[in-house]
Amino acid sequence: MTRARPDVVAFDVNETLLDLAPVRARLVEAGQPADLLRTVFARTLLTGFAATVTGTWCSFRDAFDAALAQESDLSPAARADVVAAFGELAPHPDVEPALRRLVEAGVRVVTLSHGSPGVAEAALERGGITPLVSATLSSEAIRAWKPAREVYLWAAGSCGVAPDRLALVAAHGWDVLGAQRAGLTGAWFPRGERSYPTVYEAPHVQAGDLAGAIDALLALPA
Predict the structure, then answer these.
(1) 139, 84, 44, 170: CA torsion to nearest 10
(2) Where does the pLDDT of residue 192 fall: very low under 50, low under 70, confident under 90, or very high at 90 and above?
(3) In whole numbers, what is the pLDDT of the chain averaged over residues?
(4) What is the pairing mode between strands 205-206 and 185-188?
(5) In Å, how far are 4, 55, 84, 122, 186 from 119, measured between CA atoms?
(6) Which residue from 119, 111, 41 is spatially nearest to 85, judged by alpha carbons?
(7) For the chain, what percent of residues have pLDDT higher than 90?
(8) pLDDT for residue 179 is more than 90
(9) What DSSP letter does each residue of the chain carry, written as one string?
(10) Could you tell me which residues come within 8 angstroms of residue 213 by beta carbon, excluding any fewer than 6 positions away?
(11) Which of 7, 40, 97, 145 meets the CB 3.0–4.6 Å disulfide criterion with 48?
(12) Are 221 and 204 in contact (CB under 8 A)?
């Protein structure tokens, strides 16, 4: 099926748009190795995915705290201090020009996260790019985590477009796969992941960086 140029582009938030460096720094300040963040972040996702699949739910904040408790000996107060660093995140340097290019092309931009409400908003404000984003969507509103199909369909409904007119840009293969299985156009580029998982169906759009992914989406037929 030929994909059409999207009317709206949704962006994953953590890692895709926002640099998690402040959280990593807070872990180091607490006496933990810097690479613990990758392990804890992965376990956080596992916790949330499992909750969604089994018909239960937990917030990103609580899942991240539970993952920290599993992977470190930090006290509850120290873990809370690390979690608080999510409030200090800022966009990667390539984000502002990518979002601006979409807006100038007449494409609406939204964010789509299963993270805690307020994190994306604060980071966008910190990066000075709030005016480029028409909505910040957190699936906490429907108590589900991506890549559940319902999250992407809810996002399309919230944006007032059919699923095939919404694209999802993410640096996580599982997120792109979930979006595509729900009928969205998926766009993947490497940030934390070096390559797209070969066990998944190929992404509709794949590029070497964020700018390339945006160029490819805009090049799709109207």
Answers:
(1) 60
(2) confident
(3) 97
(4) parallel
(5) 31, 25, 10, 5, 23
(6) 119
(7) 97
(8) yes
(9) -PPPPPSEEEE--BTTTEE-HHHHHHHHHTT--TTHHHHHHHHHHHHHHHHHHTT----HHHHHHHHHHHH----HHHHHHHHHGGGG-EE-TTHHHHHHHHHHTT-EEEEEESS-TTHHHHHHHHTT-GGG-SEEEEGGGGT--TTSHHHHHHHHHHHTS-GGGEEEEES-HHHHHHHHHTTPEEEE--SS-SS--TTSPPPSEE-SSHHHHHHHHHTS--
(10) 98, 169, 187, 188, 189, 205, 206, 207
(11) 145
(12) no
Q: Which amino acid is at 16?
A: T
Give phi and psi for 131, each to the nearest 5: -60, -20
CA nearest neighbour of 186 among 16, 49, 3:
3
91 to each of 54, 59, 99, 176, 201, how far by Cα in Å?
A: 33, 22, 11, 20, 29
R_g of the chain computed on alpha carbons: 17
Distance of CA 215 to the CA centre of its chain: 19
Rounded CA separation 27/33 (Å): 7
Say which residue the tokens 């934390």 belong to: 192
Whether the per-residue pLDDT at 77 is higher than 90: the answer is yes
Residue bearing tokens 């580029």: 189
Kindly tell me if the per-residue pLDDT of 162 is higher than 80: yes
Distance of CA 102 to the CA centre of its chain: 18
Which residue type sits at 70? Q
